[in-house]
Amino acid sequence: MTITTGQNANTVTVVDPAERNQALADARRRASQSALANAEAAEARRADSLENARAILERALGANTRLSISRDEGAPTYIYRAIDVETGEVVREWPPAQFARFIAEQSDAFRLESASGAVVDEQA
Asked: Does residue 26 lie within any of the structural domains?
């Protein structure tokens, strides 16, 4: 229904409340379906990424291993170990323990130098 009022002939369109409610419900349903489709697509991408990561780890570590990640209290680095599930033996470790100890020692030395003022900042 269209109503024309006044000398300027402003047009006011009156919408049936039932039609308006139906249009709003349809819009909400479309938005919900779109959001659901986006969420499902994102979940599928996450599942694919997880499967790819598992495949990479399986190739790198072996099929019958688990990954252990640890960090010593004083060390600034993490140690990653591939451990055989059946025997509990460390199959692979990175960085090697010697390298991790070296990094920790260098980190300690740097902290001592910084604390004592042995690190000099020069301007060219």
From this structure: yes
Q: What angle do CA 17, 21, 25 make, to 5 degrees?
A: 170
Radius of gyration of the chain (CA): 33
Res 111: pLDDT = 57
**Domain range for residue 42?**
1-61
pLDDT digits (tens, 9 = 90+) for 8-66: 556 666 778 888 899 999 999 999 999 999 999 999 999 999 888 878 777 766 678 88
| DSSP string covering the chain | -EEEETTTTEEEE---HHHHHHHHHHHHHHHHHHHHHHHHHHHHHHHHHHHHHHHHHHHHH-TTEEEEEEE-SS-SSEEEEEEETTT--EEEEES-HHHHHHHHHHHHHHHHHHHHT-S-----
Identify the residue with better confidence: 103 or 111. Answer: 103
